[in-house]
TrEMBL record:
GO molecular function annotations of the record: ATP binding; ATP hydrolysis activity
Key word Zinc present: no
Pfam families with a match to the protein in the record: ABC_tran, oligo_HPY
SMART domains per UniProt: AAA
Similarity remark: Belongs to the ABC transporter superfamily.
Domain ABC transporter, residue spans: 5-255
Biological processes, Gene Ontology terms: peptide transport; transmembrane transport
UniProt xrefs under CDD domains: ABC_NikE_OppD_transporters
Protein name: Dipeptide/oligopeptide/nickel ABC transporter ATP-binding protein
NCBIfam families, per database record: oligo_HPY, PRK11308.1
Keywords of this entry: ATP-binding, Nucleotide-binding, Transport
Keyword Transport: yes
């Protein structure tokens, strides 16, 4: 397997202003030095509670948010070094699907116009070719070409997400960041959309970064899973290994709350004490130490590095050095 994307020490800090002079008095460390690789054709899931930095990481990769620091190496090229015009062109290869397709689709535009727009932006085809492409896209995502003149509100939630997927696909991207793509949908519709995404991945050789707080959904679709907490990656492993053998105490707690398919297999439910600390004032050392039942002295002082403990299973915890 070959990495199509390498994220290196990515940081996104938002300044906090205060005082009469409205000066920077601190930073919200939304993403605080995250590194990982994504292999060609895989689905890497980023999971964690809201505010852990997974969406910010996804958007920074596409430079929809400007990273504060770090490198985003896509097919050997550092995207952070590109100017706006170069990045605009490169974005053909990197697309995004949003959680709420209704909010991301212009309500006054027909499906035809919505799907044609990226083609126009990237100078793809003439009017007739674009029309043909839009019809083809609708069929590819399981919609009917008779629906081409309809507006977003005339579709169901699941159909709108299919339109969002078609829009991302329209420019033949290589990598798609899917940010909670099924979280707004009924459970009965979720698996249809996930299955569609899997079919499209196979058909077009797509690579996905799949962002979700829902570990049942991630179990369905991911090849590998990265767990984030307070802007840091705390564990990264193959899906099966992560679900069967979670090593980080935070991952163990997250997974203990997920129903398991095998009714004979009971996992102890781990209740995390306390709230997630503020990302503007994260705990020193291991950021999880305020909630960790294995906390040691060293945990409050030293930041644990993310290290490979074997088979590409990475973990940032002083218990595993
Ligand atoms: Fe818990 Fe320490 Fe590991 Fe952090 S480093 S998860 S506090 S044992
Ligand atoms: Mg989010």
């Amino acid at each position: 397997t070959e990495a199509i994307l390498k994220v290196e020490k990515l940081k996104k800090y938002y300044p906090i202003y205060g005082g009469v002079l409205h000066k920077t008095i601190g930073y919200v460390k939304a993403v605080d030095g995250v590194s990982f690789e994504v292999n060609q054709g895989e689905t890497l899931a980023l999971v964690g509670e809201s505010g852990c930095g997974k969406s910010t990481t996804g958007r920074s990769i596409l430079r929809l948010i400007e990273p504060t620091e770090g490198r985003i190496i896509f097919e050997g090229e550092d995207l952070v070094s590109l100017n706006d015009e170069q990045m605009r062109k490169r974005r053909r290869d990197l697309q995004i699907i949003f959680q709420d397709p209704f909010a991301s689709l212009n309500p006054r535009h027909t499906v035809q116009r919505i799907l044609e727009e990226p083609l126009i932006v990237h100078g793809i085809g003439d009017k007739n070719e674009r029309k043909r492409k839009v019809v083809e896209l609708l069929e590819t995502v399981g919609l009917n070409k008779e629906q081409i003149k309809r507006y977003p509100h005339q579709f169901s939630g699941g159909q709108r997400q299919r339109i969002g997927i078609a829009r991302a696909l329209s420019v033949n991207p290589k990598l798609i960041v899917a940010d909670e793509p099924v979280s707004a949908l009924d459970v009965s519709i979720q698996s249809q959309v996930l299955n569609l995404m899997e079919d499209l991945q196979e058909k077009f050789g797509l690579t996905y970064i799949f962002i979700s707080h829902d570990l049942s959904v991630v179990r369905h679709i991911a090849s590998r899973v990265g767990v984030m907490y307070l802007g840091s990656l705390v564990e990264l492993a193959d899906k099966t290994e992560l679900y069967d053998q979670p090593l980080h105490p935070y991952t163990q707690a997250l997974l203990s709350a997920v129903p398991v398919p095998d009714p004979d297999f009971k996992r102890e439910r781990i209740i995390l004490s306390g709230d997630v600390p503020s990302p503007s004032n994260p705990p020193a050392g291991c950021k999880f130490h305020t909630r960790c039942r294995y906390k040691m002295d060293v945990c409050t002082k030293e930041v644990p590095d993310l290290v490979d403990v074997g088979n590409g299973h990475y973990i940032a915890c002083h218990l595993h050095r």
